[in-house]
Amino acid sequence: MRPGFQTSRFVCLCGQSRQNGTEIERLASRTSFATLQLRFPKNDIMNSRAPNLIAAVIIAGLASVASAKDTYKFDPSGSTIGFSVHQFLGTTRGKFTNFSGKIEIDREHLENSSVTAQIDVSSIDTRIKKRDDHLRSAEFFNAEKFPRVTFKSRSVKQTGPQSGDILGDFTMHGVTRPITLHVKLLTPINETAQTRWAVTTDPINRREFNLMFAPATETVSGISQTVAINIEIEAKRAE
Q1: Could you tell me which of 194, 199, 201, 202 has the C-alpha nearest to residue 232?
Q2: Cα 114 to Cα 44: distance, rounded to the nearest angstrom
């Protein structure tokens, strides 16, 4: 240490300053906050004020860190957004292959977490090209006019240790309605840089979004008005 200087070691937690070196190291390792070493002149007029001033700066910095959210982005290669609908001849199943989304997780206050997602309507795939082309057409989805389906969360409620409900605005075919996503965590967040979620919703009534076939087609095919949604999302932590 340089002559004329003394060393003060402390860490600020919950607005308090502690000056025991061993306790500081223990608290710092537990909270992932770094222990700080500060030096100032013994006879400096600011000597008595410096710790309080620096502590205030540190507390402000730590507050911003503590409130930060972990951001995860959808990985389409490991995710599926699927649907199924009943009709006279059985069940039609399909999926969307082009989509993106972001999950922001506030570990301390889960209710402050959020989810946004966008789906490219033209990427619909029911494994029958003629049917897919018809679904994209102006008679049904009208993908040219309404190219995207979107979801933006309003609130998050934890319902169990690894589950929650996400209420949000769901927009499809130019119509926005509230829906609730029931999510279950499949991969613990703390153990990996990526996470996996299973997502379901209550059945969606397609007529509420003005998604209807010609009357003759509706009658002959017996297509159900409700559509079941099944989603599995793999998301990677954003750098």
Answers
A1: 199
A2: 49
Q: What is the pLDDT of residue 108?
A: 87
Residue ranges covered by each domain of the chain: 5-66, 70-237
Strand stretches in 53-96, DSSP E: 70-74, 80-87, 90-96
Question: Each residue of 177-215: pLDDT tens digit?
Answer: 999 999 999 987 665 688 999 999 999 999 999 999 888
Question: Distances in Å between the alpha carbon of 101 and those of 17, 79, 111, 198, 233?
Answer: 41, 11, 19, 15, 9
pTM metric for this prediction: 0.71
Instruction: Judge: domain 70-237, CATH 3.40.50.300.
Output: no
Distance CA 131, CA 88 (A): 16
3-state secondary structure 40-66: EECCCCCCCCHHHHHHHHHHHHHHHHH
| Residue recorded with tokens 């209710």 | 111
Pull the structure tokens for residue 173.
């075919």
Tokens of 172: 């499809």
Radius of gyration of the chain measured on its C-alpha atoms: 27
Residue 195: CB atoms within 10 A of its CB come to 21
Task: Specify the pLDDT at position 216.
Answer: 81
Encoding tokens for residue 109?
């206050």
